[in-house]
Every structure is written in C-alpha cells, then in structure tokens.
C-alpha cells in the first residue's frame, strides 16, 4: 500500500502576495477578509461571498443545523461505544500504518497526522512532538470527536460532507479556538453505501499547508479504497453463494441485495416482480459494484437501513415491511433476512410475499428533525441560499444533485438524492423517478409522453419536463388529485 503513495511534503513556500499581519504566518489579507466574514456570520448575519463555497456551506450546517458553539476551543470526548463494522479494523490498521509513516515524514515540518473512524473519533495521531502537545490542548488526541456536529468546520469532520480532499485554513474553522491551525483532510468511503468509514488529516500550527497535500491525501485514500473494493467483491461472492443455497429451499420470489440496497442476485420470480428481463445479469449474480441494480421502490432504502441496523444487534434477526413493489398495486409484504460472513452483515435476502419477524414502522419523527432555514447550492465560486419554494425539481447525476430553480440550474451542496429528499420532503417534494424529485406545488401542467408515460411540466415558459416513472405514477396522480 505505502509503495503506491508518494512521500509527503507539507512545507509550503511563501508567496509574494502574502501580507503577514501580527506575526502570524496564517494571517494574510485573504484570511483577514474571511475572519471579518466569520465574525458577521457567527453573530447571526448571512454571508454569500468572500468565503469558499464548501467552507460557507459548512458554516451554515454548523450554525443552523448542528448549533455548534463558535467559541469552542476544545473538542469534546467521543462516546465510548465502538459501533463500526468489525472488518473495518483492517482498514483502520492500514490507515494507521500510513499515518505513522506520514507522521515521520512531516515531523521536522511541525505537522500532525491524525486518523479517525467514520464518526470523526480520532484513533491515532503522529508527527512533531511539540505540535502534537499543542494539538492535545485542543483535544486533537485519540477518542476525541472531530465531526462537524461536535467540533464544527475542520479537515476531518468536513471531509465527511464533501467529495475529495478539503483544506481548512485559519478562520475558516467554525470554532474560534482553532483559528491558528491549518488542516487538510479526506474521507475514505464505503464502495457500496458511499458512507464514510474513516478520514486522514494533516494539521499545522500557525503555518500554511502546501498545495501538494490534497494530491497526497487523494492518493492515500485511493490506496485504501482499493482494499475496500476488493472486500466488496468478496462480500458479493459470498452473498451469491448463499443465495443459491437459499433458492433451493425458498420457492417465493427472492432477491439478494448488498448493504446499500442494490440487487446482486434474484430468482426468476423476483426478476419478474421487479420488472427486469429474464436475461438480466442478476439471475446468475453480479459481483461488480457498478453493475448492480437499484430497485425503484418507495421506502426501500429506508427499510434496508433499518434491517441492517437491527441485524447488527442479532444475527438470527428477521423483519418485514409492506412495500409498493408493483406500480399501481397494493403494497406487498417483504421479509428481510441478513446474510452474515465473518460475524458481520454483508447483505440481505428479500423474500417477497412473506411476512415474518419484526415489523417495520416508518419513523414519523423524521419530519420533526431540525430543518434547515434554507437549501444551500453552489454556483461557480459562490454559495446560493435558496428557499424551498424557489426549487422546482432536483435531478441526480450519480452523487451530484442539480436543482432546477427560479435562479437557474444550481448544484446542491448536499450529495446524494436520498439526502436531498430528506431535506425537501417536508416542503412538499416527492420522488417521482429514480433520478428526480419534484416540488408538487410547482407542477403547472401534465403531459403524456410518446409511449404513454406521465410527464410533469414545472415551468411552462421553458417547457421544462420532469419524467414520472410508471412505478411512481399512481402516487403522483393521487397527490395531484388527477
């Protein structure tokens, strides 16, 4: 692993544009502008420019959603529970070896390298002894919590919220007590679910970060994610093997899914029920993550998350939910059974038409969570603050979500259509297609497509068309009263 990652250099050459103020090597004309913006924002005012979009989006999360105290100068201790997957210990060991190696390389440059788990809990730190002692004054030490929810904008916590590496310099940190630090971090993500497993971060006290650091972080994360990919393929092979044995005992329609709710294998009954063709690759089993099939079933992702969390507590667990599997038909019972390998959940069997085990109850409190006062978008180098009423629809392009708004097409700061749906559902938005959410209050016209499919028009002036999948069409008609 380490052979694929180049040596780490964090010494940053000074530039002639830097204007040192007050003796701090972090205080430049640019950071002074950011500091003034931070003071206004922390006092409750809104800021739309002068701060990098990813940092400003983080500030909004910290102030309006997480309510992190901006005067904080010490990270809180992390909960004592250990809730990560057992096999992730291997990933942490690899990251720890990489962190220790990088720590030796940056020791003479005053750097500190830290590794966290997916909740932002520090697992280990390495580097310059004096810098580490100073970092420990802020509780940058094992089993402290550096998620955005706990400690505001910082390299470790903010890396969980954005793709790729993120740098946080001086007053870009949400908490004032960390304004003399520069840091850069990147998350290591699960190939199946996209959720963060860990992060690696580099910090320096009162010194800028080299522009080479983000590239190093990218290569370091990629080297670890290669191991996660290989593990993911191995998991799928074990699920397919057990699926073949299960099919010999089960006559009902049955599908095997991974931890993210993607279909890996299905018998002919399930293939027909889910609307796939009999020559679909899932009939024989699919191990390549990119080739797996995502069911377009309302609430399916939520049920999978619920079943996985319950199965973690008890390996012999089973549960059931009622899902609208066929468009326009009544919901059918679906029983979920975990697939266990090496003492952890690697997938799930979905048996359609069977009602067995613990019943699923929709979390009616989801709409009662603290909602953002605005939806945050990014356009060019500027953050755009949107009222939900300004958004007509949301369209997914893999993990990137584009918002069709009264101010043009804007990229959402939040990744993943499921996450955007969670934010917008309380404001009258509904999933109408695997790739689309629509603001039902903004639907102006309905149209039939060339093959009889339903199409929504949200802006008659531009003839803006939002497709409705056959699966979602009956519910959309009901909600619109047509």
From TrEMBL:
KW Magnesium (keyword) present: no
Pfam families xrefs: LytTR
Keyword Hydrolase: no
Molecular functions per Gene Ontology: DNA binding
Official protein name in the record: DNA-binding protein
Polar residues composition bias: residue spans: 11-24
Region (Disordered): 1-24
Superkingdom of the organism of origin: Bacteria
InterPro entries cross-referenced by the UniProt entry: GAF-like_dom_sf (IPR029016), LytR-like (IPR046947), LytTR_DNA-bd_dom (IPR007492)
Domain HTH LytTR-type: 376-482
Keywords: DNA-binding
Signal peptide bounds: none
């Amino acid at each position: 692993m380490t052979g694929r990652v180049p040596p780490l250099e964090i010494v940053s050459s000074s530039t002639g544009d830097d204007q040192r103020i007050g003796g701090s090597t972090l205080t430049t004309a640019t950071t002074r502008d950011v500091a003034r913006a931070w003071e206004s924002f922390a006092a409750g005012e809104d800021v739309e420019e002068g701060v990098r979009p990813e940092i400003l989006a983080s500030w909004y999360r910290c102030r309006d959603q997480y309510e992190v105290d901006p005067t904080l100068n010490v990270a809180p201790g992390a909960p004592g529970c250990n809730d990560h997957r057992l096999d992730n210990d291997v990933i942490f060991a690899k990251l720890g070896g990489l962190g220790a190696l990088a720590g030796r390389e940056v020791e003479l440059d005053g750097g500190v390298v830290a590794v966290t788990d997916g909740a932002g809990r520090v697992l280990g730190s390495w580097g310059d002894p004096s810098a580490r002692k100073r970092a420990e004054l802020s509780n940058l030490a094992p089993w402290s919590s550096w998620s955005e929810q706990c400690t505001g904008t910082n390299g470790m916590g903010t890396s969980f919220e954005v793709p790729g590496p993120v740098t946080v310099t001086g007053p870009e940190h949400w908490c004032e007590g960390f304004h003399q630090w520069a840091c850069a971090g990147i998350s290591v993500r699960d190939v199946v679910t996209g959720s963060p497993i860990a992060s690696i971060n580099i910090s320096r006290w009162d010194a800028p970060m080299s522009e080479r650091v983000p590239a190093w972080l990218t290569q370091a994360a990629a080297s670890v994610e290669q191991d996660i990919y290989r593990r993911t393929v191995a998991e799928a092979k074990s699920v397919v093997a057990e699926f073949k044995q299960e099919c010999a005992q089960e006559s009902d329609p049955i599908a095997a899914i991974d931890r993210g709710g993607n279909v890996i294998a299905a018998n002919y009954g399930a293939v027909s029920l889910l609307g796939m063709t009999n020559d679909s690759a899932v009939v024989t089993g699919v191990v390549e993550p990119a080739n797996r099939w995502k069911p377009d079933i309302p609430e399916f992702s939520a049920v999978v998350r619920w079943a996985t969390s319950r199965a973690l507590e008890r390996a012999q667990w089973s549960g059931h939910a009622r899902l609208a599997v066929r468009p326009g038909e009544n919901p059918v019972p679906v029983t979920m059974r975990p697939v266990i390998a090496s003492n952890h959940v690697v997938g799930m069997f979905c048996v359609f038409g069977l009602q067995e085990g613990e019943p699923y109850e929709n979390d009616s409190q989801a709409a009662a969570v603290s909602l953002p006062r605005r939806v945050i978008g990014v356009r060019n180098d500027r953050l755009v603050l949107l009222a939900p009423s300004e958004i007509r629809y949301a369209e997914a392009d893999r993990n990137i979500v584009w918002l069709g708004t009264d101010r043009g097409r804007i990229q959402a700061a939040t990744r993943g259509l499921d996450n955007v749906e969670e934010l917008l559902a309380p404001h009258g938005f509904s999933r109408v297609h695997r790739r689309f959410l629509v603001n039902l209050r903004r639907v102006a016209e309905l149209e039939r497509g060339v093959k009889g499919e339903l199409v929504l028009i949200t802006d008659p002036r531009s003839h803006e068309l939002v497709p409705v999948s056959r699966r979602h069409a009956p519910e959309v008609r009901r909600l619109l009263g047509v």
